[in-house]
Please model this.
Amino acid sequence: MGRLVALAAREDERCALIGATLRRDRPEIGADIGSALERGPNGRTIKATLGEALAEPLPFQTRGTVVVDFTTPGNGRAHADACRAHGAAWVVGTTGLTPDDALAIEDAAKSVPVLVSANMSVGAHLVAQLAARAAVALEGADVEVVELHHKKKKDAPSGTALLMARAVAEARGQGEVLRTGRSGEAPRTPGEIGVAAVRGGDVVGEHTVYLFVDGERVELTHRVSDRGIFARGALRAARFLAGARPGLYRMKDVLA
Model:
């Protein structure tokens, strides 16, 4: 995802690509970012840490610096410290966050604007909002969320599936009623929201919210065919944060 975000930022006239990071063992460390993207040099070099990238002086004025973070769980504390130290807003698209990552995000949001989303697609968030409205309108409906992803995806169920299920639960005024996976002989518990994960092939991402009532069924589906939509959504979130006050934001704030 990092490369897609960098490419999208390089091609967006509203953004200036000023930094990028890779693991310290990668040979591209120190290379020009634009050249690494095969888009021509831009005078900025790839760093091994976020702190190093943010510390590199800028030759021009900006509306605000925003970090778009698609890395791996466990980096939250270091990234939070770097964003606070340099006054940078922080878009977090990393999934499978650890408890310490979550605490680091909460701490950072006291000083800088932070947006967290397991899915940067506008369409996915619209489905979550529609599912919440439908669950209220279809009083007593049984709700199940099924997600499909490629066979290499590590976390299950996906953060987007959980987002959709929790949107329904919140709209209904429910607490923690999610059930991930289903086995055994027990009947379905009234009010629970099931979440199931399917893995296989090269599926980019598909989520369906099923709402069952006696005599009919409503299905709301979001399918992704181009991962570029996540990069474009992340940049939309970044532009929103560039003018925001410190605090914790969600994609629904961007779409409001």
Observations:
- The radius of gyration is 20 Å.
